[in-house]
Design brief:
Layout (H helix, E strand, L loop, with lengths): L1 H19 L5 H17 L5 H19 L2 H20 L4 H6 L5 H21 L7 H12 L4 H18 L2 H21 L5 E8 L2 H12 L4 E7 L4 E11 L3 H11 L4 E7 L13
Antiparallel strand pairs: 1-3, 1-4, 2-3
């Protein structure tokens, strides 16, 4: 999955990104911006992999220390392969001509979707595509916050510089590219998001055991009164990872078909929350 993500990302850079003249944002976009500056103002071409590797060194060291060795090494594999393929893979003009892709807006939208797909492949393999993804995952792991929107804001700064130095329309199209990536990635991958479960049930002990065994998360029970049936009920409160919700809800319904479950998006949690180790 890591290698597939690297190939897909390199292919995307050499097709949709180059076809639209886009700056994708993140360290990939920053590297392409440096390449363009060197070419236009210095008159020389620098390899993509050179600056791409240099920019990723510090975030990789931080993640190696605080997130996990296996996670960081797989991520470095993705970075190395993507950098090499981007330099070695020719810009696939035949592909662009074959699908008649000469519309910058289409390049931005479908390039953003491919970029999100490549990143999500790495995330599902417990790795990352590097760069700002390292930073986003570090914030998510350490502070339990969804950082993708903050990364998007930082990317807009990079694109503003690109618009000032080069073409404003390409920078604006690049914002569409990055926005599409952010939205698509939030749809493809939910591992760093949390959900709050509010469960009204007559089987609190059995449902707590289920939550504990399937997710390794705890729960808190509150005594309640159901006015519709005029009966005592229990309210279970628990926070789990977003990708655990669907199988957990199905298992809850098997134990208590009458359970009433409310799933809420959790923006931030403070306190002890179990995160599966990367190594």
């Amino acid at each position: 999955m890591v290698l597939a993500g690297a190939v897909l990302m390199a292919f995307n850079i050499n097709t949709f990104v180059h076809a639209g003249g886009l700056i994708p944002g993140g360290f990939t976009g920053l590297t392409l911006l440096i390449q363009e500056i060197c070419l236009r103002y210095g008159g020389f071409q620098v390899p993509f992999s050179l600056f791409f590797y240099l920019l990723n060194i510090l975030p990789a060291i931080v993640c190696f220390r605080f997130i996990g060795k296996k996670f960081t090494l797989y991520s470095c594999l993705m970075i190395v392969v993507c950098g090499l393929l981007t330099d070695w893979m020719p810009q696939v003009r035949e592909f662009i001509d074959f699908i008649q892709l000469h519309d910058t807006l289409l390049s931005a939208i479908f390039g953003g979707i491919l970029n999100a797909a490549a990143t999500s492949l790495c995330l599902h393999a417990d790795a990352t595509s590097g760069g700002t993804d390292f930073i986003a995952i570090f914030i998510s792991e350490r502070y339990h916050r969804d950082a993708w929107n903050y990364i998007f804001a930082g990317n807009c700064v990079i694109l503003a510089v690109a618009g000032w130095l080069f073409s404003l329309d390409k920078a604006l199209y690049s914002i569409i590219f990055q926005f599409t990536t952010t939205i698509a990635l939030s749809a493809f991958y939910h591992g760093y998001q949390q959900r709050t479960l509010l469960i009204i049930t007559n089987e609190p002990e059995r449902l707590y055991a289920l939550i504990r065994d399937k997710t390794n998360h705890a729960a808190t029970s509150f005594d309640g009164f159901g006015f519709y049936e005029k009966k005592e009920r229990a309210l279970l409160y628990s926070v789990v990872s977003a990708n655990e919700v669907e199988p957990l809800v199905a298992a809850i319904k098997e134990i208590d078909p009458a359970a009433f479950i409310n799933v809420l998006k959790t923006e931030q949690i403070n306190g002890r929350f179990f995160k599966r180790p990367k190594d």
